[in-house]
Design brief:
Order of helices and strands: HHHHH
Number of strands: 0
Structural class: mainly alpha
Helix content: over 70%
Distance between the termini: 26 Å
Radius of gyration: 17 Å
Shape: flat
Length: about 130
């Protein structure tokens, strides 16, 4: 069941990264806005934000899948591999989004990615 939840979560991540429009009909209803009245910059920003969420969701789905495979097989290596794979996806997407936004905190996020890559390498070496 956990493997299936992980797979569905990865599919949701794909939706957020590749298919989801910046604003859904319920978003517009909630804010009471006219889509033509919204700034193109706001639409671009929302697209970046949802792609970032997609990266976080993908990482979570990979972790769930790894946990499910561990539960099924009892092999620790599934959790280790899933963690090593998810870390660069999550923090890489986070950094990429902030590069697009010209964030003032790129150095902090780049540091997080460096730590994530280090952790991923250490995990792989542990195998």
């Amino acid at each position: 069941m956990v493997i299936g939840l992980g797979a569905i979560t990865i599919a949701v991540a794909f939706y957020f990264v590749a298919l989801r429009p910046p604003l859904l009909p319920e978003d517009l209803r909630y804010i009471g806005g006219n889509p033509q009245a919204l700034s193109p910059a706001l639409r671009d920003w929302l697209g970046i934000v949802f792609h970032t969420w997609g990266g976080f969701i993908a990482g979570y789905g990979i972790m769930l899948t790894g946990a499910g495979l561990f539960m099924l097989t009892g092999r620790n290596s599934w959790v280790v591999r899933a963690t090593a794979l998810s870390l660069p996806i999550v923090f890489g997407r986070f950094l990429y989004s902030n590069v697009l936004l010209s964030s003032d905190f790129l150095w902090v996020i780049a540091g997080l990615l460096a730590l994530a890559l280090t952790a991923a390498c250490l995990l792989i070496l542990k195998l």
